Amino acid sequence: MLPRGRPRALGAAALLLLLLLLGFLLFGGDLGCERREPGGRAGAPGCFPGPLMPRVPPDGRLRRAAALDGDPGAGPGDHNRSDCGPQPPPPPKCERRRGAAADLGVPPQLLHVAIVCAGHNSSRDVITLVKSMLFYRKNPLHLHLVTDAVARNILETLFHTWMVPAVRVSFYHADQLKPQVSWIPNKHYSGLYGLMKLVLPSALPAELARVIVLDTDVTFASDISELWALFAHFSDTQAIGLVENQSDWYLGNLWKNHRPWPALGRGFNTGVILLRLDRLRQAGWEQMWRLTARRELLSLPATSLADQDIFNAVIKEHPGLVQRLPCVWNVQLSDHTLAERCYSEASDLKVIHWNSPKKLRVKNKHVEFFRNFYLTFLEYDGNLLRRELFVCPSQPPPGAEQLQQALAQLDEEDPCFEFRQQQLTVHRVHVTFLPHEPPPPRPHDVTLVAQLSMDRLQMLEALCRHWPGPMSLALYLTDAEAQQFLHFVEASPVLAARQDVAYHVVYREGPLYPVNQLRNVALAQALTPYVFLSDIDFLPAYSLYDYLRASIEQLGLGSRRKAALVVPAFETLRYRFSFPHSKVELLALLDAGTLYTFRYHEWPRGHAPTDYARWREAQAPYRVQWAANYEPYVVVPRDCPRYDPRFVGFGWNKVAHIVELDAQEYELLVLPEAFTIHLPHAPSLDISRFRSSPTYRDCLQALKDEFHQDLSRHHGAAALKYLPALQQPQSPARG
What we know:
This protein is α/β, with parallel strands linked by helices. It contains 24 helices and 25 strands.
């Protein structure tokens, strides 16, 4: 029998052992911040065992390991450090910090990112980069974009129509920064824009203390807030966070007489940078890099790697400025990369950097792995990234609240709900998706304006052969289809040679084809004084472009005369036929039954007012009167009324526009030598729905009634003229 106090002592001891065991399990036994991983490698959660680079496994294959490479606390010379540093702080939370932790007096969860971007191709790269950031991010972002005029036009339109919650965008004029770097000779393909990261401390707002700076050719594989959290590892003097360069470039042994700029060891890559802007300003950064660059340029002819050479030269002279970042935050896929030493054992890649001029075509035995990762975001549906950050409430994008209120008022039981919803949809718009050279200013120049979807791409080459002038085309595509379109153009000698064709991608969303929204996008981007409002299934006469410019001048259009020039429309039912080169040849084909006036068999009233009998004999332009359901193809000034976006799918989309032109007292003048010919194609889904669904036709009638109500509000009693036309039923047979 045990003494009376023994059970209590044993119970207390058992309880103590239980608490110790629970503590061990909860904290992983990490009392000394060190443990041994399989294979004998030291490491710990959140500890970085030493900079460049993990060993390459014998089989050379990608595999996962327990620890990341790179010690944020390591000094410039600590290449073999293995003791465990402090655990990295967690990513910024959504609560407001107080005191010095709050930059700019705003919650620290707002992460600032700076990118330099110029031109059409670089703008596309930025969008893929932003998609990858948005996919993983859990924090609001403020993007600071240094752009030329081309990139600003593209990205300003894109972000305005993308309407991503918790994303702010500020633009800075690259042209204003050029004088600060134009004196530096640079052999890098990025030109002057590749030097502009040097001037960010002075170009960005003075109150901005920290910023992440990114190249356009990087792709995120992790939450960017984890990168932001590495600012906490900076010492009091460190101001620049960089990943070591993953090649032998700065060692100077790549080829005979290779003379790189000075660098600390292997040097650093500037594709991903953490900048303490406040410290750089206090340290006199501008004078520092200028003096270094001028001194080095006395013995070196130019920079080879743009800003990276100058950053490295400064760091060589002032090593206390730099904070080494783990290699996984800039996995560099250059031509001579040694990045495999990093990614082959890294437990988690963070940022992939395509820093070779060959980009996705770089030679690397693991390139398919990285390429597929990149393509995931390249073709990812950007509409899916319009998601709220529920844990980080933020100000909605401009217009988002009104849009949500309008959508909330829709009745999902309404038979016309799809039509109502499609009208309110704000489509992402990427203007000038491909490189484009604006036409030189000409007083009577004309741009062909049209819209198309993926199933009409085959029309583009023929259209380019028929119309030698500028074109503005809106394409309704998914993100993946946009890349197919890009490859289609690059593979076509005809299309690739045309720099005066502007392609604007409107990203697909919703069940109905937003035909008039597409037309308005293409119309808004036309740069000439006049536009020819056409459709993609039509081929204009070979001489039409020159003939229209001459006719505009002869008729004295513009401020002296408000007119819409009618281009008579014809059609063939044959997929292969000999296109007429003149009016005489066209009339012969018309008489032979090879051509017909457009929609003569199915919808003659759509073009009957053109008066084809008179056109056969006409030698001069003649005026015609508006009539119900008239929908000719016309040439008008660029500032003409826009198309009514409520008409989606099939029916009345062009008719409503001609009604508006007539209501604004445009003359309708038929040109005697002009013509355009419609080529046959399979019916669209919207035409099929119009023909087969009474509900579809009822909804179209409802849209027509609403159109007339708005017409009456704008034009008063004059709108009564159009009421009978609006009340006429449309035949399901119409094509």
